[in-house]
């Protein structure tokens, strides 16, 4: 079947734009009113979700490239750039500098709805409070490869060479729990229940730690590097990129150790580059290096075509809080917003 014979949801339920530069990330504001796309040219495009078809605002966030982007606190977005600045983008597009770290690149940012934030700068993770002040700087043995808060915002995890470090952000004494495993660790995720930490490695494999007893979990067999990790809402599955399909590792019944992964939504010989699990249901959106986006139901295996290939590799993929809106961006600057609510 040719692409023209496939009914993609983008045609019926989508709004698209050409933004002119690599889309490095997309994030819905937790308030539900805004969507932000961060670009490689330093701009952030903010979408007013009350008027998705017409109200798109472009603001200059960084003098250089946006390197990282996430939802910020209660609303808006948080960005890091190669100009050493951490910026807050309000739902109306107002840009505020929170911190400046010289000329160092801000390759990783993370936040929690409580208002606490973190920025990965070289070998340090700087914790930034709701007022924009740095409350502590956490030193690591090598360059930080990824950061993530747990669901309660009590701990922040950072990946680095030879493992990961897990910190209590409110502790008076800054002493991490070090999770050791030789090699280079990048993308990182914490299980929704706070029971496991998983990292993507340079060696085309994942490594995990069960925090209750320190049990190691090695998940291998990928044909390329994994850059995107996403747990399902209740933590039953971990969806990952890095193969020609979405690779799902079971985190139930003693898994993932001793259990084979499930594979969904094959890209017909094309690598999966981004995954994003639905915030409520056991469904996963997957983007591929040719621009294809598929939506898969994990339990039934049913696949729904979302967007056709042809507009560049998928580099950003995000859901809103209730899972009615899906946003995506590509390496060629193409982006889209899909309304998946019942009509």
Write up this protein.
The chain is mainly β and 343 residues long. Helices cover 1% and strands 51% of the residues. The protein is built from one helix and 30 strands. The chain has one helix spanning 9-13, and strands at 14-18, 23-28, 34-39, 43-48, 56-60, 66-71, 77-81, 85-89, 95-100, 106-111, 117-121, 124-128, 134-139, 146-149, 155-168, 177-190, 196-201, 206-210, 215-219, 229-231, 237-240, 246-250, 262-264, 272-277, 283-288, 293-297, 303-307, 314-319, 325-330, 334-339. Strands 14-15-16-17-18-19 form a six-stranded antiparallel beta sheet, with no helix packed on it. It has a four-stranded antiparallel beta sheet with strand order 1-30-29-28. It has a four-stranded antiparallel beta sheet with strand order 2-3-4-5, with no helix packed on it. It is globular and about 60 Å long. The mean pLDDT is 94.
């Amino acid at each position: 079947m040719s692409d023209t014979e496939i009914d993609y949801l983008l045609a019926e339920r989508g709004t698209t734009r050409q933004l002119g530069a690599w889309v490095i990330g997309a994030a819905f504001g937790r308030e539900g009113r805004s969507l932000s796309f961060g670009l490689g040219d330093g701009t952030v495009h903010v979408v007013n979700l009350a008027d998705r078809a017409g109200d798109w605002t472009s603001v200059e966030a960084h003098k250089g490239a946006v390197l990282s982007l996430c939802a910020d606190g209660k609303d808006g977005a948080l960005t890091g750039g190669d100009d050493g600045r951490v910026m807050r983008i309000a739902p109306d597009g107002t840009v505020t500098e929170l911190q400046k770290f010289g000329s160092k690149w801000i390759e990783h940012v993370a936040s929690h709805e409580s208002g606490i934030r973190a920025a990965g700068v070289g070998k340090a993770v700087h914790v930034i409070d709701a007022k924009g002040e740095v409350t502590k700087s956490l030193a690591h043995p090598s360059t930080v490869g990824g950061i993530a808060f747990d669901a309660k915002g009590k701990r922040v995890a950072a990946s680095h060479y030879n493992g990961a470090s897990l910190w209590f952000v409110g502790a008076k004494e800054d002493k991490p729990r070090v999770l050791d495993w030789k090699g280079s660790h990048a993308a990182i995720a914490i299980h929704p229940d706070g029971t496991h930490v998983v990292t993507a490695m340079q060696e085309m494999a994942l490594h995990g730690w069960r925090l209750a007893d320190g049990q190691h979990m090695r998940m291998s067999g990928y044909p390329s590097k994994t850059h995107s990790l996403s747990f399902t809402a209740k933590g039953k599955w971990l969806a990952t990129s890095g193969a020609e399909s979405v690779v799902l590792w079971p985190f139930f019944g003693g898994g993932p150790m001793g259990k084979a992964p499930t594979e969904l939504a094959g890209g017909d010989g094309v690598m999966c580059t981004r995954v994003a699990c639905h915030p409520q249901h056991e469904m996963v959106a997957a983007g591929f290096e040719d621009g294809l986006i598929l939506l898969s139901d994990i339990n039934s295996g049913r696949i729904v075509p979302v967007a056709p290939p042809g507009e560049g590799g998928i580099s950003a993929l995000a859901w809103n809080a209730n899972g009615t809106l899906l946003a995506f961006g590509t390496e060629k600057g193409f982006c889209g917003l899909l309304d998946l609510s019942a009509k």
